[in-house]
Design brief:
The chain has 509 residues and is an alpha+beta fold. It has 3 domains: 221 residues, Ribbon (Cysteine Rich Protein); 70 residues, no CATH class; 178 residues, no CATH class. The chain is built from 12 helices and 22 strands. The strands form 8 sheets. Strands 1, 3, 4, 10 and 11 form a 5-stranded antiparallel beta sheet that branches. A hairpin with a 2-residue loop joins strand 6 and strand 7. It holds the Pfam family DA1-like. This is LIM zinc-binding domain-containing protein. Keywords: LIM domain, Metal-binding, Zinc. One of its GO terms (molecular function) is metal ion binding.
């Protein structure tokens, strides 16, 4: 007895499921209205009694429509006739209060299990699993409504306003069924624009299980580019492909990887179109958040340098001398790196590549002279190996200028570990062991910072980002080296780890 609906399917975005509300404006509702009207004349002139016996009136209304379904007939009514309509013999039903009451009582005495359940199957549209990186809504096709029959519930209420929609299975107003609930047509509203969405396809957002117009769902959940603010382009096969920062979760179109869009030299985020950043003279740019604690010159870095030297003291690693510290630009740092014989970018971590350098001079032998045989003023030069360990001097620590305090400090903590090893006569280590220990000290310094008064601030997030960079680095030298050093530190502690390195040149297992 339900209203006729055409089945439809569709996909949206990365392929969810559309749904079309089931409308109960005819069918069972119309029949219920006809049944009620057929018996309404029985109660004319008895307004007060009708108000007192509302449930009985509704049962009477049901009796006529149930009579045919259950095979009941009344005197003067041919089998198969509808309430309020002509019988097969052409005669109309004569109103009879006593007979109607009897039918109502018989109906109310029926076991609830005998009532036909209200079943509303939904036709689910195709769901695509090819876009795991993009949010998707569920899109469900329309369903074919069944006859609304009483299944033991005295009434159904609108999920939106709470008003009654039907009583004893008889609809008292038009309604729709969607999201597993019943609604007035105007009460089912879009989770985006808040306008009614009855009467057409809509999207069920898997993010919040609300209904949306397809366009409203797209505007709310379809990923946008952090650079140009456009919707991410959809590939021909329906996939949405984009780039994403693993820590900040910023997403951007792939084309921005090669179109010259600048990144912040500190936090590595891409610059949004139209946003003004701070350009440095060597071509780098910093976002507005990272410049709050920027350190620009050598003099301005001295308090931080002293703080990190004190941190080394607290860790039981006092340096025998204080190496000179200088903040330099990128060109000077790269030139110094090349003179040291290090290939730029060889196994470097993202945060530390060409941002810090420790300059050392190591002496293993000294060229000396002895008196020759050619006369009183002749000499013979020769090399003399130094006894014990080699002698090393740390001539300078270079750090890139124009970085925020936390990044500058972590670079300094890293470079001071190189200095500590050299000044303690520990040399000849493999690159992964030495750089791993330096990264460990950078992380320990970051984690020693008291940011309890800065929870939720940019500085706290930046500290987490730099620590994340160290922990997740995939390079064999810096990344694997750090994880080896961290494992040794957690198992044996820092003093025993350094003692093993001094003794064997390797990390303890």
């Amino acid at each position: 007895m339900g209203a006729n609906h055409s089945s439809a399917r569709g996909t949206f975005g990365n392929g969810g499921q559309y749904q079309q509300p089931v409308v109960y404006a005819g069918g069972a509702q119309a029949q219920g209205q006809r049944s009620f009207q057929a018996h309404q004349s029985t109660f004319l002139g008895r307004e007060e009694d009708a108000q007192e016996d509302e449930e009985l009136q509704i049962a009477l209304a049901l009796s006529a429509s149930e009579a045919q379904n259950r095979g009941w007939t009344r005197p003067g009514e041919a089998s198969g006739s509808h309430a309020g309509e002509a019988s097969t013999s052409g005669s109309r039903l004569a109103p009879s209060t006593s007979q109607d009451e009897e039918f109502a009582r018989r109906l109310q005495q029926e076991e609830p299990s005998a009532a036909e359940p209200h079943v509303t199957p939904h036709v689910t549209g195709p769901s695509s699993a090819t876009v795991p990186s993009s949010p998707a809504g569920s899109v469900i096709g329309p369903s074919e409504p069944k006859r609304a029959a009483w299944a033991g519930n005295w009434s159904d209420s609108c999920a939106g306003c709470g008003q009654k929609l039907s009583v004893l299975g008889v609809p008292v107003t038009s309604f729709i069924e969607a999201l597993g609930k019943k609604w007035h047509p105007g009460c089912l509203r879009c989770g985006g624009c808040q306008a009614p969405i009855a009467g057409g396809m809509f999207v069920i957002g898997k993010e919040d299980n609300q209904g949306y117009h397809p366009e409203c769902y797209k505007h709310k959940f379809h990923p946008r580019c952090a650079v140009c603010s456009d919707f991410m382009p959809v590939e021909a096969d329906g996939r949405i492909v984009y780039c994403e920062n693993g820590f900040w979760r910023d997403r951007w179109c792939r084309r921005h990887q090669a179109d010259g869009t600048p990144r912040c030299t500190s936090c590595a985020r891409m610059r949004p179109a139209g946003e003004q950043w701070v350009p440095l003279e060597d071509g780098r740019e910093l976002c507005l958040a990272c410049i709050e604690t920027i350190i620009m010159d050598t003099a301005g870095c001295q308090p931080l340098y002293n703080e990190i030297l004190q941190f080394y003291d607290q860790m039981g690693m006092r340096l025998p001398e204080k190496p000179p510290l200088m903040l330099v630009d990128g060109t000077a740092l790269n030139e110094a790196e090349n003179k040291e014989g290090r290939e730029a970018g060889s196994g470097s971590a993202p945060v530390f590549h060409t941002r810090g350098l420790t300059l050392t001079v190591e002496y293993r032998a000294i060229r000396t002279v002895a008196k020759g045989h050619g006369g009183p003023f002749s000499i013979i030069p020769h090399m003399v190996n130094l006894p014990g360990r080699s002698h090393t001097e740390v001539t300078a620590i270079l750090v890139l200028y124009g970085l925020p305090r936390l990044l500058t400090g972590s670079i300094l903590a890293h470079e001071l570990m190189h200095a500590w090893l050299r000044l303690n006569g520990i040399s000849g280590l493999s690159l992964d062991v030495e750089e791993g220990l330096c990264q460990l000290m950078a992380l320990l310094w970051l984690e020693s910072q008291d940011l309890s008064q800065k929870q939720g601030t940019w500085e706290e997030r930046l500290a987490s980002f730099f620590a994340h960079q160290i922990r997740t680095d995939t390079s064999p030298i810096y990344g694997d080296g750090f994880r080896g050093a961290l494992d040794a530190f957690q198992k044996h502690g820092l003093p025993d780890t350094l003692a093993c390195v001094r003794r064997t040149g390797t990390l303890p297992v």
